[in-house]
Amino acid sequence: MTLGALALVFLLVFGIDAIGPTESVAGVAQAEAPRAVVALATNPLLTYSASLAQNTCTLPKFGRGLEQLRAYLTAELSCLDAAWKPLVTALNMPFEPTTLVMDSSSGECRSRDDSSPVAFYCGADNQLHMPIDTVLQGTDGIPAVIVGVLAHEYGHHVQDLSGILLAESRREQAAGRDTPAGLELSRRLELQANCFAGMFLASVAGRGSISRSMAADGAAAFADGGGESDHGSPAHQGRWAQIGYQENKTAACNTWAAAQGDVS
Question: What contacts 132, CB < 8 A, 6 or more positions away?
Fold first, then answer.
């Protein structure tokens, strides 16, 4: 009997489900295409605890002029890609870089109250917005704080790649954006981005251009944040950044499974 005939008998007797999802009839493994998982607390990014490996992040000389700051942020963005890509792809999730935007455009996204945030990530067009004026004003031009802000916004990019951002958006839309439930979802999203930022700072601390003191200062600066209704209290913003910085584990950043009192 030929191999093809044997395969047909196998299918007729055992059914198609007897073949594993990543196996062909001939028994050759087929790689499953990378995909995001639209889920919050049960997202594989959070249930399969992973850490960012130590990375050396080399940055150019810091400057407050547009081109100097662009070069600085672009270099950090490369460090963020290098840190997060292995973790994301190891979970068989799709990875693509985000684009840095430094003018005052908002792309396809709008802020919650039409205000001008210091910085923001727009999943609709995969752009990371760091307008030079609001960034320098909102951070007092302190390099450690700016590094932390970019790492936070990149945390939203990680949420986008994993499917968390879409899952939260759907839940928030159903709840009502400015309702208590909608605002709580927003806080959980933002506090998780703080935690992811802390993970990155821990992974580059004491290596390259980011000293341990600079990384620690960047993580600590989250406690100076405001926007309690949709971002979390300063205490909780600082706490979740410290969790990421101290533990460097994605599972520790599962704000979706945290008690309501921990995300107020």
Answer: 66, 69, 102, 103
